[in-house]
Amino acid sequence: MKYGFVRVGAAVPKLKVADCRYNSREIIKMIKKGEEEKIKILLFPELSITSYTCGDLFYQNALIKDAFLCLNKILDETKELDIISILGIPVLKDNQLFNCAVVIQKGKILGVVPKTYIPNYSEFYEWRYFSSSKNSIWDTVDILGQEVPFGADLLFEEEKNKELCFGIEICEDLWSVVPPSCFQAMHGATVLFNLSASNEIIGKYEYRRELVKQQSARCIAAYVYSSSGVGESTTDLVFGGHCIISEYGTILSQSERFVEDQMIYSEIDLLKLVNYRTRNTSYMEYGYLKDMKFRKIQFKLNNIEADDITRDIEPHPFVPCDLGARAKRCSDVFKIQIAALAKRMKHTKRDKAVIGISGGLDSTLAFLVTAKTFDHLKIPRKNIIAVTMPGFGTTEETYQNSLELIKSLDATLKDIDIKPACLQHFKDIGHDVNTHDITYENVQSRERTQILMDIANKEGGLVIGTGDMSELALGWCTYNGDHMSMYSVNCGVPKTLVAFLLRWAADNVLDERVKDVLLRILNTPISPELLPPDDKGKIKQKTEEVIGPYELHDFFLYHMIRYGAAPSKILFLAKKAFSDKYREDEIKKWLLFFLKRFFTHQFKRSSMPDGPKVGTVSLSPRGDWRMPSDAQVNSWIDELNNE
């Protein structure tokens, strides 16, 4: 598979109780509609051919016979279709009736999976009719003249694309202490299907939704769920027709309830799931399951890959779209940073900190974290030595913002002009002050770091690093300059999240005088301010004009590190995520830039100072990311160029 996306769906057709002919006609309509929508595997509810609420009618031969006549009709009507359908039907085998899922494609039955856990409590009394798969001693069953695989030990695998392997469980199986899908996933199933008949009572909707999310996360899988709809009997219960498609703990699509005749679908990212499983040691330690065998049933799908994906691709994966979730994320990150710095202060028995304040986003966030850490430790904020160090590129606006920020947070201000020291250094090394090259810029950065380190030695404090994770990914920091500190509180925070953290802090943890200057800082262009301002005294050196948009780089970083996505797939995803903002050639240009810098500047990450991991992506050489500093980028560039 090129990108790894396959489209799956869940359907709730119109239904009449014990009317197999009506139900089969509606199922056929849904299957044909699914084929039109390019769905590759379509799931139906539990006992969808007969209906779930037949009660003692399950004892009637007429119902069971008609169910199979109608199944034959479904097979005949869909024999030209590529789509795989998973239907619910009662199956009689040697004096036992099983509640089953039957998997069909192109007029053939691929296999039959019986339900394992049979509920017999509260409103459920399935033991009255159905036997558990545990009571089955047969490997096959004769259905409509076909001898087909039968059992709860079946997995279904695409013959050429092994990443698409699915398992099936039925309703109560998911509610059990250890659902069968756990073992299916451990044996290779990346997609899990559940035919269900879950009735509606107050609070059950939320519980059911979280159960599906949790199981997809636990199994590092996709979980597709379809429950019986409003056509079921309302003698004692009401069914809502709840469909869910979840991938690794995220809901991709979900249906409305109490609506007849509906279908949802989305694309599952199989390569993402497989990649994440390969790095998860839980999938390496299941030798204890060696006696549990699964039979794999091969099938073939045409044009399996979905290249017109409908699922949302979040352009800012580090920043939740939902405002409530975003506020919670910001609060958690802030608390993690504070807890981390507090531990380091206590461990080193220090009660002073030294931090450089530039008037930019990163140093402002690190300063706020430091101030709140000192509050937490009950250390006076005057013990924070905040140093502003104007250089050749410092504008009056950022300089004044720095001074005001330091004063508003009641820290100790040190204002040190670095220009004389830098001019002397230029003279010492024989550098022309009018040559504004990398030496010109880095001399300023290293001079600032030297000042901070020396003040820390003099005062007995810790230098607090301000650089963020996005800068580390690109190597956009001066080695042994702003790259270095005694503890780096922002090293796990991507640039796209920094501004949201500051806005959250302005609204939630700061007083008005701090909030005013913070809002001005938020409106300042991102810049290292190492080159002289323009004729109007404004910032001339704008970072994103040089290295590209941080929102693109954070997107690249997330998908490359979190899920091991190949460059061509990252480009594919970015085109969809930023379709209304960047052209394909622009995205590809900055992706190539990102790849080259990411590989070239690993040496900076290999020697980065300690700092807390705050999210799912971290570049710490002692934690998540261990990469040789001399690794070659050629394979990644070739993969992208040959896309």
Descriptive notes:
- The chain is α/β, with parallel strands linked by helices.
- The chain contains 20 helices and 20 strands.
- The strands form four sheets. It has a seven-stranded mixed beta sheet with strand order 13-12-11-10-9-8-15. Strands 5-4-3-2-1-14 form a six-stranded mixed beta sheet.
- α7 packs across α13 (495-508) and α8 (361-377) crosses α13 (495-508).
- The protein is elongated.
- The two termini are 13 Å apart.
- The model has no long low-confidence stretch (mean pLDDT 95).
Outline of this structure?
This protein has 643 residues and is α/β, with parallel strands linked by helices. It is built from 20 helices and 20 strands. The chain starts with a strand and ends with a helix.
Task: Specify the CATH class of the largest domain.
Answer: Alpha Beta
Termini separation comes to 13 Å
Can you identify the CATH superfamily of the largest domain?
Carbon-nitrogen hydrolase
Helix tally equals 20
Assign a percent range to the helix content: 25-40%
Shape-level CATH architecture of the largest domain? 4-Layer Sandwich
Count of distinct strands: 20
Number of individual domains:
2
Overall structural class, as computed from helix and strand content, comes to alpha/beta
Would you give the CATH topology of the largest domain? Answer: Nitrilase/N-carbamoyl-D-aminoacid amidohydrolase
Strand content: 15-25%
Unreliable runs: none
Strand neighbour order, sheet with most strands: 13-12-11-10-9-8-15
Keywords: ATP-binding, Ligase, NAD, Nucleotide-binding
Catalytic activity: deamido-NAD(+) + L-glutamine + ATP + H2O = L-glutamate + AMP + diphosphate + NAD(+) + H(+)
Enzyme class: ligase
Function: Catalyzes the ATP-dependent amidation of deamido-NAD to form NAD. Uses L-glutamine as a nitrogen source.
